[in-house]
Amino acid sequence: MTTFREAIEAKDMDAVEAMLADDVVFTSPVAFKPYPGRAITSAILRAVVKVFEDFTYVREIHDGTHHAYEFTAKVDDLDLNGCDFLTYDEEGRIVDFKVMVRPLRAAEALATRMGEQFEEIKAAALRG
N or C: more exposed end of the chain, with fewer CB within 10 A? Predict the structure, then answer.
């Protein structure tokens, strides 16, 4: 079975989507409120893959159903450091997906780039 890290590193977004629970909640580093649901979470993640350059996971921490994946990437030629925090349910599906990034300038660039794609993200989520 493909792991979350393997799927992300292979940019296999269909495999990532299959790992998401229907009621997953995605907490963005650049949005005010969380996004509930598999369709919007999948659409956001598919867009992020396009925005991040040189994405690499550099560390994993696992504690039962809680997993943390530290990563590095570039956005608009700015170095970005972040962490994906995932919580899995008893069936092995991701029910909570929270992302934190730094530094501020790179986070602002990420917000701008994701904002540019948000209409497409919403449309993709509606298609489901």
Answer: N
